Amino acid sequence: MPPPRPVQPPVLLPPPVLWRDLRRFTPARLALGRVGHGLPTAAHLDFQAAHAAARDAVHAALDAPRLCADLAAAGLSSVTVRSACPDRRTYLLRPDLGRRLADHQPLPPCPAIAFVVSDGLSATAAQRHAAPLLGLVMPALGQSGPVVIARQGRVALGDAIAAAMGAEAVAVLIGERPGLSAPDSLGVYLTWAPRPGRTDAERNCISNIRPEGLAIPAAADKLLWLIARMRRLRVTGIALKDEQPARVDEERKDVLF
Question: H or E stretch including 138?
């Protein structure tokens, strides 16, 4: 019988260079390493902190007076309404109520595009990014307001608001569901001829608007392009394709979409 082969100790290799290089381009968790069967302590604590930030973003309250002041500083008037949800707990448990406007809330007429800002699932995103984005978009369209600030609102709440205002279209700026690396991501949903009952297939969406994602100037450029095409074709959603040509930012030397 041949003698048993000697057991070779395992060779521990460092993370591939490619994985380490990818960290420069994404906040995703790559090549975290391990200690035994678990994560290193630093990686575990970072995950816990990111999870807590995401939970905080979901439960955070929108500071409507502060947002009104930020919009006013950009030369935009505003009005505040709320959905049929009386509080945050109801909002999270009853999505249907977040799509309905509370009773007895008069809105001023707006024959052009109604702009609605809602907390959604991240009031942090709406608080930080809505006013700077609208400060670029609305003056370019020749509009100064009123921006409708909607508390405890879902995307479809914009349809009810715009229908009450008699608007030709609605753009809903809303906090997106937080991720572990993006607790402040803002989305914009554009809908032509809004009315209750519109579906997501009838909307165009620009998502991940934040400094580490789609920068606000690039998002404004995209939204203005979609609005121009929407008005020309009189449609949104699957009937309106995002065919905006890519352009190169001369300062950053990268492609913006």
Answer: helix 123-140
- pLDDT of 10 reads 59
Average pLDDT of the chain to the nearest whole number? 88
Number of H helices, E strands in the chain: 7, 8
Q: What is the pLDDT of residue 9?
A: 64
Query: What pLDDT, on the 0 to 100 scale, is given for residue 253?
Result: 42
- Of the given ranges (15-19, 76-80, 213-217), which has the lowest mean pLDDT? 15-19
Our CA angle for 109, 113, 114, nearest 5°, is 60
What is the third-level CATH fold of 62-256?
Rossmann fold (3.40.50)
- In our burial notation (b when 16+ CB lie closer than 10 A, e otherwise), range 131-140 reads bbbbbbbbee
Neighbours of 56 (CB within 10 A): 14
Domain residue ranges of the chain, discontinuous segments joined by +: 62-256
pLDDT mean over 41-70: 89
Cα-atom radius of gyration of the chain, to the nearest Å? 23
